[in-house]
Amino acid sequence: MRPSKISEQTLSRGARLSSHPDRGFTLIEMLITITILVILLALALPSMLALIRDQRVKAATYDVYATFIFARSEAIKRNGNVLITPNATDWGGGWQVLTGATSLKAHAAISKISISGPAGTVAYQRDGRISGTASPSFVVKSFDDNSITARCISIDLSGRPSIKVDTNHNPSDGCQ
Predict the structure, then answer these.
(1) Parallel, antiparallel, or unpaired: how do β-strands 122-124 and 113-116 relate?
(2) CA distance linking residue 135 with residue 153, whole number of Å
(3) pLDDT digits over 3-37, tens only?
(4) Could you tell me the CA-to-CA distances from 110 to 43, 63, 74, 95, 114 in Å, in that order?
(5) Which CATH number do you get for residue 132?
(6) Range of the domain at 143
């Protein structure tokens, strides 16, 4: 007697399933894949860290730049003097924007970033100009990596800040 058609299909399907090996990864395949990923990660990590440090310098530069734009705008708007003072002995410890005794804006210290600038305060007059005869300038660089390109912010006597990139990798010359 011949088996019915259903039992033939069931038998052939069962035979097909048992003839194929189990699906999935073997331990050796997984270890090889993990080893390749670790090697690729080890090759990419130094570049990624340099990229992160460079982005920190850029972000800190724009924070300082935005502070001066804000202070100049407030001096003109309020028709009064506005001061930017460092929180600590240097600008790396953060700064405040003040008008009289009122704090308009405060910025905390930025970790792993060195910000050097003039000692004391930078003052904007009611017309938006810098008080004094010297143009203040600031150098923003990575605290722990000299290979990261520094950025400089200089403020002209009219009060407008500008950013320069240190092309010769010597931030002590003011980003020439």
Answers:
(1) unpaired
(2) 10
(3) 555 555 555 555 555 555 667 888 999 999 999 99
(4) 29, 10, 24, 10, 8
(5) 3.55.40.10
(6) 60-173
